[in-house]
Design brief:
78 residues, single chain
Length: 78
């Protein structure tokens, strides 16, 4: 598997994870209206969002590194 493709897949997974946590946090507004809801643990969701953010950054860095390696290889070849 290509490093860039693995990085892009990781970016998509991190984005999906972040969006799920954000959606659960958004449910709090409906919880305040008295409508029956599932319990939302803000600390758990905050940790999940931070993990997704770090995963996104790590995958982005792997793509940037792959690009730098490709550029270095092309520079060496002439």
């Amino acid at each position: 598997m290509d490093i860039r493709q693995a990085g892009l897949d990781g970016l998509r997974r991190a984005e999906a994870s972040f969006e799920k946590s954000a959606a659960r946090v958004a449910q709090i507004s409906t919880a305040l209206t008295g409508v029956p809801h599932d319990y939302v643990d803000l600390s758990t969701e905050a940790v999940a969002m931070m993990e997704a953010s770090h995963a996104f950054q790590a995958n982005l860095k792997s793509i940037e590194t792959a690009d730098e390696l490709t550029q270095s290889s092309l520079d060496i070849l002439g």
